[in-house]
């Protein structure tokens, strides 16, 4: 009875293009201010492109391995399979592989270079914390990350951020290539300060802008896919409380996957909130509740389209 849902964008291509243009502008600004050689710039662009390829092509394997997640069969997780199969069919897209990560910190993420090589992963904690309706809301959100090609965007943004950061580090140790600057000893100070301080911060902020924008979009699109924004709002509220009680251990692996997760898996206090890759949960919930009110006004009844039991 359910008609296929059209996967739509939110001018994601334009947003990404503008953000990437800003990142490249930062790279060129560093190069110009420090008098860096074209060879040095070319080297780090090559590093960034190589990082992009690896992180994009092997993104699913890297993320799954970082979380020590295991693939599960339909016999082992019939409820997850039923929800993912239904939502994938509604979107008219292939069904991704399903994994479970052995951690009690509640969270979930999607990964993969495209919709045919995608995977969704839930932690043991989120499966115990949420009811089936709320898990459906979470999985709708994660599937839309795949269908909107957010994984590709995140991989490219991460690689470009690496270019900016390592270019700044190299200039901190080796300086510019200008003989005059080396002789004067002070002509490169402004450029080095930009490289050492502003470049890594700028790269991180742009990455966060990309991530935060796409979290809001996935909330909206995922709720349109499920027809139940209140379920996702309830899930986000429980996940935030659950993370405070059982935050994920910060390792190199979990740090690399944290931006993919539906909510920040680490406790965020003080200035660390400013640098979070996720928007405030309260703001996300407020938007979802407003969406629910709009659906009700339009005659839709959230949560009653499909029986979950």
TrEMBL record:
Its EC number is 3.4.24.-. The keyword Metal-binding applies. GO terms for molecular function: metalloendopeptidase activity; zinc ion binding. Residues 75-290 form the Peptidase M48 domain. Its main location: membrane. Keywords: Cell membrane, Hydrolase, Membrane, Metal-binding, Metalloprotease, Protease, Transmembrane, Transmembrane helix, Zinc. It is found in: Cell membrane. InterPro entries: HtpX_protease, Pept_M48_protease_HtpX, Peptidase_M48. This is Protease HtpX homolog. The gene is htpX.
